[in-house]
Amino acid sequence: MKRSLGGLLFAVVAAAGATGVATGMSRAHGNDEAFDHAQHAELFPSCLACHRGVVEARASVFPDPAGCANCHDGSDDLEPVEWEPRDGPRATNLRFEHREHVREVAREGDQEPLLCVECHAPEAAPWMTVQRAVVASCFDCHNLGPEHLAAADDTCATCHTDLADSPTLQLEQVAGFEAPPSHAEAGFAFEHGDVTDATCAICHARDFCVQCHVNAPDVEQIASLKPDERSLAIAAELPAPASHASSAFLSNHGREARESSETCAVCHTASSCTTCHVGEPELAAFLPTEGPGRGSGARIDRTPPPSHDQAFLTAHGSEAAARPETCAGCHVRSDCTECHRPGAPTGTGFHPADFMTRHPAAAYARETSCADCHATAEFCTSCHAEAGLTASDILTSSFHDGQAAFSVGHGAAARRDLETCTSCHVERDCMVCHSSTGGRGINPHGPDFDAEKLRRTNPQACTACHGREIPGAP
Amino acid sequence: MTGRRWGAAAAAAALTLTPAALHGQALRGDADVRFQSLEFERYGEDASVDLVRAAPVVATLDITAWGFGIENLSLHLRTSATDDLADENAWPVTQPPLRLVEGYAEYSLPQLTVRAGRTPLHTRLGYETFDGGRVDVRPHGTPLTVSAFGGWSLARGSTLPVTSPDVNPLGEFRPDQRGWLVGGILGIVQGPVRGSVVYRREVDPEASKLTSKFVGASASVRLPEGFSLSGGADYDIGFEEWGSADAQLLWAGRVAERSVSAAAGVRRYRPRFDLWSIWGAFSPVPYTEATGRASVSPINGLRLRGSAARFTYGDPETSSPLVSFEEDGWRWTAGAGWAGFSDWAFDVDFGAEFGPGASSTHARASAAWRPVEDVRAGAWAARGTRPLEYRIDDAIVRSLGVDLEVDLGRGLRVDGAVGYYDEERTGGVERSFDHWHLSVGLRYGFGTGADRAQLHPAILAIPERPDP
Q1: For residues B42 and A387, what is the distance between their CA atoms, to the nearest angstrom?
Q2: Which of A299, B82, B104, B327 fits as disulfide partner to B117, beta carbons 3.0 to 4.6 Å?
Q3: Is A321–B123 a contact, with Cβ atoms under 8 angstroms apart?
Q4: Is the Cβ pair B388, A333 closer than 8 Å?
Q5: What is the dihedral of CA B184, B189, B194, B198, to 10 degrees?
């Protein structure tokens, strides 16, 4: 079927009109039931008998309800019909009106005027077999391509107005827009900016772009779009680029950000950086902050790197001491002092809730250094004293009852776990035997003990057991 | 209520109410009040058993303030008030009731930072605070940071000086005066290599004798392909002995697109004692440990983890034919965490350790439910045993509990937990440790950026979100 432009337009107008009629009818009925044209085939010889407004400016597109009531008066099984014709413009973003299209066709002159049935009825169908005009008819006449959504990007405006210029379009209609196949192509999310033809505005407005584009005010294509909140009915998805899934991305993204900061600024605000880099806000200085006209951008979940597993909690010491700057990338001082603070009796989460039940083994083996956070005498000893575990007066084996001769052979245990001994014992407990002045003079020093060195460095400890008679002293 | 108790109560109230008075643009802080209650049995005199109740309330206040008309000047304060509301006063670290954890002024420029007051120091030798000052210099154009610090020391692991009777409840021998502390740090950051060396010397001013003198070093290097190597060591100059040391090789990356991390290392541990104590003269021996750990996320939301360690003590060079003690030990843990559901997270953890002095096995399971962003509810159950080598007292402990955290908005967060411990002892003295443990906390973040309680004040340089 080959037609002139006027004929084509008429077809499209007819299609649009039919869509509008159908829409108007169903709304008028208050339900989705459309007017049954076929049932009335013997009554109406012309479409314009009811839809005169399609061609006449002051006429109504829809019939007068009173006309329906002429027959549907409640007699002869013809129940009254209650409906109201659509009041106001049709809800559409189609660019044309039936009347305008008729005029276009008339101006062509050398073409036979199109009949309504050419768009609104299947070919060779019986009279009054009415259907909505299909988009394929428009495409056929306008030579736009084989399928609606597969048409070239610069052809949409042939039939459609921009979303922002279609005030009658309802939110649910916008939400129901089908996405063109191009939108599903791999990489479209990151390459759609290369589309230079202004066709995005048919379905989208600036608000849609701002959902993702942090740099929206800086992008000419976005800034040129009109704002329209209805465009938010289409939810934008912001997938992470493939580069972000690389195993090296976590460690390399800083350098990449410095080298291509404008690329980052497409999707990321400063909060993307400071979500993790809480102590280094200066890193985010090159990125914009959230605000009106800018999207919130990619949402960053603060997740620990793989190395930060459960065991890392007690094994991070050396790495943290050597590379505090690395820690400072994501942590601030208060993160450390939650645990690393002296005299922390509140239990802020470092030890699990049931740690008290197994703390003896952890303390004996010094999985972590208890003394870094707890003063042994202040914390351990005072609690053990309240529990009745500290020594008093003459030492016996009553507590260490695992082996009857513990007191005799406790030296090896003491040299291995001296810090644990001090959680219940003070020096005078040991000096009962190990002092050479008030005790039994049993030597506690190991074979490698250098008495002269200790006496030279600080003789105070020596005097505790030896008094003024420190061996080797001049 | 005693005068001391009234003082503690007043201090706690002051800590809680201070935020409202100090609210302003140039202030950020965090106040936390926490109450706990528990009961347990203890050995009384003449082997009787007493029921002891502890009801500690701990209030902490953490404030950072700036904007005093002097650019780059800020004040930092962290203090706590503690009291045991039960008469037994059984909770540790409740005296004195008011403590200054940190409190210093900081003046910071790009190449210079000066701190004065109760200053924190975090080095290879551990975390400590002291009353004095610290200067950090970062020479322009060099990868170096040079620091010097000095002042009066505090007892290790405490906020009190070593002369305080509260850090010496049993009357251990202690110096009569606080030690003088001086030292320095040299740090370097050069590409993937970072390192620091710290020197720390403490002197007893009364005897003009050394209390302790250490030098420590730590370094790390980030290697290609996700590897990093780190380690450090310290040397006790006072005793002229090597102290603790460690080295660790860490790898984190992806295998078949799954997140994996693994680490292997060695560690040597030797306890540290001051020179005024006789403990160092008892010749404590170190132990050496080989460790390994790994974690993998085989599917999204699931992470499996495991670790193992084997440690051996040095020869104590003393023995008795009458007794025999364990000389080495091992430990392993295995666990799994599942966070594949949007509202739920689950975690299980198993472990066992065996070694000189004590052993233990434990199993723990927990679940957390976050129906909305502001509410988190959890429950946990655990079972453990803890046989002790030196006494006939094996215990099986079962515990379970629930906890709840609610973000009330405007910086206010409340949490609570209730747990029950059921202890079954075999052998030794019949003594029950069954008890309920109640904990209730209230946390309030205030000041500028109060909704970001953990953020550094420098972040406030980033503009707030404009009103829509």
Answers
A1: 4
A2: B104
A3: yes
A4: no
A5: 0
Here the tokens at position B82 are 């503690």
Instruction: Give the SS3 label for residue B388.
Output: strand
Over range B72-77, report the average pLDDT: 85
Looking at chain B, which residue has its C-alpha nearest residue A334? Answer: B454
Residues 32-61 in A contacting B (C-alpha not used; CB under 8 Å): none
**Going by DSSP bridges, is the β-strand pair B412-426/B56-66 parallel, antiparallel, or unpaired?**
unpaired
């040397």: which residue's tokens?
A: B235
Give the nearest partner residue to A416 out of B155, B356, B386, using CB atoms: B356
Which among B93, B102, B278 has the least Cβ separation from residue A461? B278
The ipTM value here is 0.81
Look up residue A122 and give its two tokens: 């299947």
**CB-based contact A372 B287, cutoff 8 Å:** no
- Using a CB-CB distance cutoff of 8 angstroms, which residues of chain B are in contact with residue A358? 360, 362, 384, 386, 397
Asked if A318's CB is within 8 angstroms of B247's CB, the reply is yes
pLDDT at A374: 83
Enclosing H/E stretch for B363 = strand B360-372
Per-residue HEC secondary structure of A62-112 comes to CCCHHHHHHHCCCCCCCCCCCCCCCCCCCCCCECCCHHHHHHHHHHHCCCC
Per residue of chain A (474 residues), give pLDDT as tens.
333 333 333 333 333 343 333 333 333 333 335 688 888 888 888 888 888 888 787 888 888 888 888 888 887 777 888 878 877 777 888 887 777 776 676 666 656 666 787 778 887 888 888 887 767 777 777 777 777 777 777 788 888 888 888 888 888 888 888 888 888 887 788 878 776 565 788 888 888 888 888 888 888 888 888 888 898 888 887 778 878 877 667 777 887 887 778 888 888 888 788 777 766 666 777 787 777 777 777 877 777 776 676 667 766 765 666 556 667 777 766 666 666 655 554 445 677 766 777 788 888 877 777 887 788 877 888 778 777 677 665 556 567 888 888 888 899 999 998 988 888 888 888 888 898 888 888 999 988 888 888 888 888 888 888 988 887 777
Q: Count of A–B CB contacts within 8 Å?
A: 426
Residue count of chain A, please give it: 474
DSSP state of A376: I
Contacts of A440 (CB under 8 A, 6+ apart): A432, A433, A434
- The CA-to-CA distance between both ends of chain A, in Å, stands at 124
DSSP 8-state code for residue A381 = I
CB atoms under 10 Å from CB of A417, counted, come to 27
Residues B435 and B430: their CA atoms lie apart, in Å, by: 15
What ranges make up the beta strands (E) of B256-342?
258-269, 287-296, 302-313, 328-338
Q: Which of B282-308 are b and which e, b meaning 16 or more Cβ less than 10 Å from the residue's Cβ?
A: bbbbbbebebbbbbbbeeeeebebbbe
Query: Which chain B residues are within 8 Å of A271, Cβ to Cβ?
Result: 462
B182-205: b or e for each residue (b if 16 or more CB lie within 10 Å)? bbbbebebeeeebbbbbbbbbbbe
Residues of chain A neighbouring B399 (CB-CB closer than 8 A): 353-354, 357
Distance CA A258, CA B327 (A): 54
- Residue B370: both structure tokens together: 């976050």
Give the containing element (helix H, strand E) for A301: none
B96: preceding bond cis by omega (within 30 degrees) = yes
Partner B, chain A 440-469, Cβ-Cβ below 8 Å: 444-450, 453-454, 457-462, 464-465
Contacts of B60 in chain A (CB under 8 A): 346
Cα distance between residue A188 and residue A182, in whole Å: 7
Closest CA to A402 of B332, B314, B451, B357: B357
